[in-house]
Every structure is written in C-alpha cells, then in structure tokens.
Write the structure tokens for this entry.
Amino acid sequence: MKAAIMRGVKDVGTGEVPTPVLAPGEALLRVKACGICGSDLHTYREGLFPDLGLPVDGGIVLGHEFSAEIAQINGNLEGFSVGDRVTTVGIGANAEYVKFTPAFAPLLLPLPDHVTHEEAATTEPLATSLHAANLADVQSHESVLIMGAGIIGLGVLQCLRATSDAHVTVVDLSDKRLELASQLGADAVINARNADVVATVAPHARADAPLIAGSQGGVDVIFDCVGAPASFKGTTVLEQALTMIRNNGRIVVVAVFERPLELDANTIVRKGVRLLGSWAWEPDEFVAALDLISSGKIDRKPLISHTFTLDEAATAYATQDSAETAIKVVFTP
C-alpha cells in the first residue's frame, strides 16, 4: 500500500509499505482523512517523538489523527461492520490503510452521516484542546489569553466559546490565523510581530481581573500553545506568560518544547502561579470532542486549510510547517 514515509529530518516522501496483516479481533481501516499533527511537525523538523510513528523499512509512517472506513474485520468487532464510517486513534495513518486493534475499542467511534471525514480527522486535536480547557476550568467572569493560534490554540478558543463567555484574547504571528480567531469568537487579537504583547495585553483583561502591584500581570488564565522552537532565541511565551499572569492565576502549557528553558522559578513562587502541563486527552474527552463536532457546537471546517494526497507528502509537510500559510493540513489518501 502507499504511505508517506519519514526517512529523516525534513525528509518525507511517498513509498510502498506492506498492507497490515490482521490478527483475530482486529480490523483493517481504509484511511479517508488524516491530519498532520503538531507532534508530527516536531518529528519532521527535529526528529522528536519517533515512537509516534509506525516503523517501516527505510523510516517511519506518522499519522494518528484520522477518520476511516472499515475495510475488513478478522472475526468480530462488536457494534461495527465492514463499510462503517469511523474515527479513532492509532499510529501509521499517513497511509492508505491502518490496523485497528481491540485495545483501542472504546475509542472506535461511528461517524454521523453529516460529519465529513475531514472534520472527523480533527477530533483528536480537538480532544487535546478540550483537555487543556478542562484543566484550566475557566470561569465566565475571567480573562483568558491564548498564545498561539494553530489548531490547538484555536481549538481551545472554540471550547471556551462553547462553554463560557470569558473574555478571550488570542496572540499569534500570522494575520491569517488571527483573522480566523476573530471569526471563531475571540474578543481581541494581537499580532506579536507588530506589538509588545506584555504591554498590550493588560487593557484586554476584564476590569475585575486584579492587576499585580509592581507587575505587568493581570490575566486570569494563559494557554501556552507555542512552546519553544529550537531555532527561537528570544523571550519564550512561557516567560512572557509568567510576567502577564495575575497572582494565583493559571498557566496551561499545551505546547511542546524543542529545547530546555531557564525560568525564574521565584516568579512562580511569589505569584502563586498554578502551572499545569497538558498532554493529549482522557478517553471521555475524545468522545466529547466528537460530540461537540457532531452537535454543531463547534465547527471545524474553517480550520482545514489544505488537503493533499499521499503522492504529495513532501509538499503537505512543508505546507504544514508554514504558519503563515497553513492551519491544518489533511491527507485524503
């Protein structure tokens, strides 16, 4: 079968790999749509997280956020039949087919007819955004700052808009992404290329968000959806967040760091900052994410900026690597 094979840093191409062989109880899924995740990009750019790929001769096959059609079942898969439209998680879905094992049975979800495969392929990243939003426990009277308007940051915005009327400001370097953030309900947007974010954010906090004496802080909740790229040498988003957060505020880090940081831990201590790491999601959040899409409470269609075939694998990854160009790139094998 055809697959996008990652052979090394920024070295991805299309090749042939064996079609999965099924053990009893397993199913063969014909991939209909598979997104390129942020973690896939870290593998593409820096060689991080190779364990999130399926080893094949000559490299690995990435892809874990996808939708599919059941092509074959070896034995019985309770509640499902060949031809059913589904979404789930796994590895190696940058390919024509992927194997589904019984261990993931609770996360094999049927798709309503009105949900497209492309939308369904964004269920997993939405679950990641939902997990971050749940950790923050944002209240309606609070001020929120989302740093980074990629698929995860915009997903956090969508989750907050579906559950509260908190005042939300979104920061990014891309006008395209910020325009979409405004369309999705952000109360304010800031392009960090054109403004000092720390100096600009305070006026966007709600009036009842207490400012900190001797500090530029004042935001109740900050989401770091940027992290620290290996090539970036300036003040990181997390360092900025520690300056802007109010006393006893919450910072949710839902980004990946490509290099170690040096932080002034005294700021965390003296402000009483609650620093929360957010990785992936809980199974019930994956189910809830699809429910949010299926119910129409969250519309993921505007976030799908590009679709490519597996034959265009190199172009697809290069496109997703350009924040100015892409939001979510999806393979449609």
Q: What stands out?
A: The chain has two domains: 2-122+300-331, 129-277. The first helix runs from residue 38 to 46.
